[in-house]
């Protein structure tokens, strides 16, 4: 399956994507951009699942279904996160994490 | 064979360049569009791995759904011509160091370990197989996570509506004070 491209290439590409997401998560101060970094991280995990499934266990489908469920969880997470972000914006008129520094009172 | 490697190189370059652009761009809408490019290139990788169904899911759900949701919320919450201020140098350096250190550790671990590719015949991933495994209660079935994920989706949908809807007018007044 997939001659010419070793499994390591997929893994290195996915880890580059993962740590770019980590970098964005650490430096960004806007809630939406933080959410986008999280999407990058989840996406890189999906690549890993599928590459492992295809190269190491081609007779099974575990990685395939795992990444299907990860995509579903990511969609649910994005929906709830954006609802929270819009609520925060309504209350504080900003979505910068450093300006949102009070809880209920 | 040669074509596959070229395609992989193109997808890899697109993914790396646009991921970096996603986390460093100072205009938020551009960051969102580069995220879209990353997700589309990832769908291309899935096609290369012969998971057509998952690539289609990636295109419709990620590129079509989540990115549109993100762009909607950007339009609702930000001025488009607003530029983020440059991140402090100290923060940039330390975050880049943390990310780079993690990347080096992971890559050395990957390269040290020798993966033995399984040469067993690959099962064809067509819709019949996917549907049967998703609703199968046997040893290769995924009916439990399937049901859990559907409950999760309903909960997330209701939760998003409850969180994002406007509160009662009395509460709104209180919060305005």
Describe it.
The complex is a heterodimer of chains A (105) and B (177). With 105 residues, chain A is an all-alpha fold. Chain A is 74% helix and 0% strand. In chain A, α2 runs antiparallel to α3. Chain A is elongated. The model of chain B has no long low-confidence stretch (mean pLDDT 86). In chain B, 75% of the residues lie in helices and 0% in strands. Chain B has two domains: 1-107, Four Helix Bundle (Hemerythrin (Met), subunit A) (Up-down Bundle); 126-166. Chain B has helices at 2-24, 28-48, 52-77, 89-112, 127-134, 143-164, 169-176. Chain B is globular, with a radius of gyration of 22 Å. Chain B has seven helices and no strands. Chains A and B meet through α1, α2 and α3 of A and α1, α2, α3, α4 and α5 of B.
Concise summary:
Chain A is mostly helical and 105 residues long. Chain A is 74% helix and 0% strand. Chain A has 3 helices and no strands.
